[in-house]
Amino acid sequence: MWQRLVPAGVILIGLTMLLYNSYWLTKGLTMYEEPKRRLNQNDIKQENHRIQKLHEDTPEIGEKIGILTIPKLERSIPIYQGTDEEILKKGVGHYTRSVLPGNNNNAVLSGHRDTVFRGLDKVGKHDTLIVTTKAGEFLYKVKKVRIVDKNDRTVIVPKPKSTLTVTTCYPFSFIGDAPKRYVLVAELLTKK
């Protein structure tokens, strides 16, 4: 009797896990794709224009907006507006629905772990990040390191202070599409 129940139980557990993971994958993809479908280029410009204080105008998608310097890695990387694949091939991408660096709220930057952010796992709490734009130079101090699921949208939520959130795929040695994200959350120390 138990010889029939064990295989049936394993199949039931497998189906349950498949349905559970399918639900969260679909939910995550929907949350990520929905803002893209709702907003066109003009909507993004209007939204950014409303919240940008330091920067004179909203950058165009693909436009270079600054430089991210990571002192611990002795590396300076160009920052471009947008996070599509072509932009991330050139440097760090700025998530367009977040504020530009230096403003109050959450500025989100992303890059590939095997190119621009190689070695980012050596950067941690208390390390500094410097963003230089037309609006000035902004020194940030890393307050928190997080490792989250790739569909975790909490990295892009608004913040009460001027915050820089830097994300890349994790684990760093993973081959293919990594299941997690390595996240540095840094608070603004000084503006020049």
List keywords for this structure.
192 residues, alpha+beta, Sortase, Chain: A, 8-stranded mixed beta barrel, 3 helices
Question: How large a portion of the residues is in β-strands, by DSSP E?
Answer: 25-35%
Strand order of the largest sheet: 1-2-3-4-7-8-6-5
State the CATH class.
Mainly Beta
CATH superfamily, by name, is Sortase
Question: What is the count of distinct domains?
Answer: 1
What is the CATH T-level topology?
Sortase, Chain: A
**C-alpha Rg (nearest Å):** 19 Å
CATH-scheme architecture: Beta Barrel
Q: Tell the overall outline.
A: elongated
Question: Which sheet architecture does the biggest sheet show?
Answer: 8 strands, mixed, barrel
Q: Secondary-structure element sequence?
A: HHEEHEEEEEE
End-to-end distance: 75 Å
Number of strands: 8
The percentage helix is: 25-40%
| Tally of separate helices | 3
User: How confident overall, as mean pLDDT?
Assistant: 82
How would you sum up this structure, described in words?
About 10% of the residues have low confidence. Strand 2, helix 3 and strand 3 form a beta-alpha-beta unit. The protein has a single domain, classed as Sortase, Chain: A (Beta Barrel). The N and C termini lie far apart (75 Å). An 8-stranded mixed beta barrel has the order 1-2-3-4-7-8-6-5. It has 3 helices and 8 strands. The longest helix has 37 residues. 27% of the residues are buried. Helix content is 28%, strand content 33%. By secondary structure, the protein is of the alpha+beta class. The radius of gyration is 19 Å and the shape is elongated.
